[in-house]
Amino acid sequence: MSDLVTFGETMLRLSAPQGERLERTEELDVYVGGAESNTAIAAERLGAVSTWLSALPDSPLGRRVAAELRSHGIDTEIAWTDDGRQGLYFVEHGGEPRGTNVIYDRADAPIATVGADQFDPSVFDQARLFYTSGITPALSEQARDTTYHLLQGAREAGLRTAMDVNYRSKLWTPEEARATLTKLFPALDVLFIAIRDAKTVLGYEGNATELANHLIAEYDLQTVVVTRGEHGALAIHDGVVHEHEVYEADTYDPIGTGDAFVGAFLARRLSGDDVGRALEYAAATASYKRTIAGDIAAVTKEEVEALIESGAEDVSR
Predict the structure, then answer these.
(1) The pTM is what?
(2) Can 29 be counted among the known catalytic residues?
């Protein structure tokens, strides 16, 4: 029995050592990462029993992904296949002005062809919340259809539903993302969106409070959480605005920070915390993730709570 069920692709990440170029490196660090599995792991570590739905090739690389998730306590419901290949992505970390470069190699990954009917609907039995991200419907027409049907199936089973817009320009255009995601928004209870994605995908120019109120009114959402980079995050629920600052952190690896934020927020809401308290946990978990190599927030609840106790301002109004 799980509190949280997530659906999406998880890849193997191959990273050049810090500061090295992919075209010159003689070694690559191997990590496992995907938005929905990263979220499930963060949630599990913050108190929510989590299940990850996906499709993987029945190969050593596919089994490597599954084993990693299970090592973090995640239950897996996987459509295994002899077709397709394990999705990969390559990362080259560099400081300014070079920045970080990501190269995807995910063609023919099984997630692009998996259907909702390949998962046992009993996976929703006793669960309370279903989550996916805007990355998943960007992968193919079939992935869009599967995402839609899983959202509908979760709602019919009585689960709450959540999504992070998580726009990726290397996967689709803003126009394609807007056309697809706005059709999914009415099936959601909770929406996470970065203010930059609201501008890029939705063409929205208002501030975070105006954006959240607009989305709640337009799509009948219960909760909207807007992340604002270095300016922290804002959430609106039941007409109350909650804001939280960013906890300072030395950034070792920023990839997966947003997933850590979402996973912690969902876990604490599932545990009964109010939105303001969940926002505290989300901000602290995201900060901790920035200090950890790889995509996964390998944190403990005790570490997160110690950081919260060290202080950062929570404002509700």
Answers:
(1) 0.96
(2) no
